[in-house]
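ok so for the tutorial part 2 we go from a plain amino acid sequence to predicted structure tokens. step 1 is just haveing the sequence, like this:
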Amino acid sequence: MIHVTGTLTCATEAEADVVRRHLPTHIALSRAEAGCLSFNVDPTEDPLVWRLDESFTDRAAFEAHQVRTKASEWFTATAGLAREFKVSGD
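step 2 — the prediction. this is what the tokens look like for a chain of 90 residues:
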């Protein structure tokens, strides 16, 4: 299993609005992927920061998620945002 944890951080309220607008579709598409066990992106007490917690059955499922995400509207809209995450598992 692959487990991903981390944060997505916006610099401005305008960037946070972009996240709020695109996040529901990104979550729905991610959860529908083969091999996705869980996919949560939750707001924190800071309105510019989201905490992510994702699990995939294996490395192949995680890599497929990365490929799909990089070709998505979500990635285009949020490409400039700070992402900090840790991938663990095998």
